[in-house]
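step=encode ok
step=design start
structure_in=
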């Protein structure tokens, strides 16, 4: 039997194992192979394109793939949503997409708060301006387009503040040290966690783990943000029912005290208040592809503290600070890793990456203070 007489789904599967250059050549061998390669439902281009984007080693053929009509347009949504900014700006030949497709690329790639940069522009213009902004911000110290960098702080009383600092001197480590001092937690180490990784930005959380003397010191919303209730690594709840266990804890220099995880915290940590679905806008990077569910492979570190919390009685205490950092030179070209670059993280972004918190936070405060 000739190869092009095989079932079309089998032909597409075989073609999908080729590199891009070989797939281009094979698609022009016969009308049959061309029709299979051009069929959006079969789409043998998906796998080699994904392999290019995953490894970061782009084949030369990827640069001008848009000029070939045999490649379904949908593949460019994946490329524009994921590829390096420098590749999109300086190397690739951009495709002719519909406005709705440019909009989808924008929403999958950027944080919701970046919609403010669109103004009255088309979605294509908004996308290209934003990708240029990422490249410019990550390769220079210029902050003219965003003089103030916003961030979110989850307070232990259930409220949250949206605060801001001057972009030129913005240093989340210094800001969080001040928050620790205000909460009398300077003696505890700062724990930083990557919450979710998207195309150009990492969402980071700064917090402190300690052994509280009573439940009033526990920031339950910090736990809910990092570990969505009902989402587990091994499909089992990490905390035991407080009615079945008692733990003796020692809070460092403070006297030895008994602290049992209250029933209400156990219930909050393990009882989801919403139905979860995989985040699509913005689209997580492969290391967090299942977000907010756990993603195997070692890249999802949101649960790394749970053994320590379970065995030693640690809880998130004080404030939890949430920021957005542009990725380093391993993701963006020619970036000075010693000089991290940050962008704003707002309420819109918080609801996009953790919608389950929207009904949990008791008070949303713009600026400092208690929101009276």
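sequence_out=
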């Amino acid at each position: 039997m000739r190869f092009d007489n095989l079932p079309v789904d089998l032909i597409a599967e075989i073609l999908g194992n080729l590199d891009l250059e070989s797939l281009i050549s094979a698609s022009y061998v016969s009308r049959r192979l061309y029709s299979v390669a051009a069929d959006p439902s079969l789409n043998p281009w998906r796998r080699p394109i994904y392999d290019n984007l995953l490894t970061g080693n782009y084949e030369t053929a990827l640069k001008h793939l848009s000029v070939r009509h045999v490649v379904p347009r949908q593949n460019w949504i994946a490329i524009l949503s994921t590829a390096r900014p420098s590749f999109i700006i300086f190397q690739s030949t951009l495709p002719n997409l519909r406005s709705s497709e440019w909009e989808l690329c924008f929403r999958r790639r950027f944080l919701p708060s970046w919609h403010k940069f669109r103004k009255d522009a088309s979605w294509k213009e908004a996308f290209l301006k934003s990708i240029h902004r990422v490249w410019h911000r990550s390769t220079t110290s210029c902050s003219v387009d965003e003089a103030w960098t916003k961030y979110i702080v989850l307070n232990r009383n259930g409220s949250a503040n949206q605060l801001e600092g001057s972009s030129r001197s913005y240093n989340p480590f210094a800001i969080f040290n001040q928050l620790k001092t205000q909460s009398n937690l300077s003696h505890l180490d700062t724990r930083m966690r990557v919450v979710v990784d998207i195309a150009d930005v990492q969402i980071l959380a700064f917090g402190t783990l300690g052994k509280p003397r009573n439940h009033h010191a526990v920031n339950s919303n910090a736990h809910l943000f990092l570990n969505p209730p009902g989402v587990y690594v091994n499909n089992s709840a990490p905390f035991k029912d407080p009615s079945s266990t008692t733990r003796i804890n020692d809070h460092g220099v403070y006297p030895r005290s008994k602290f049992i995880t209250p029933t209400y915290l156990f219930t909050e940590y393990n009882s989801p208040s919403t139905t979860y679905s995989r985040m699509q806008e913005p689209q997580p990077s492969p290391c967090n592809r299942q977000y907010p569910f756990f993603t195997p492979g070692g890249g999802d570190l949101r649960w790394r503290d749970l053994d320590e919390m379970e065995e030693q009685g640690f809880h998130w205490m004080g404030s939890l600070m949430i920021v957005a950092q542009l990725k380093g030179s391993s993701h963006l070209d020619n970036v000075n890793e010693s000089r991290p670059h940050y962008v704003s993280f707002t309420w819109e972004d918080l609801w996009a990456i953790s919608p389950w918190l929207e009904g949990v936070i008791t008070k949303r405060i713009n600026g400092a203070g208690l929101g009276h």
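step=design ok
step=annotate ok -> Strands lie at 148-154, 159-166, 190-197, 201-210, 248-250, 256-258, 315-326, 342-343, 363-366.
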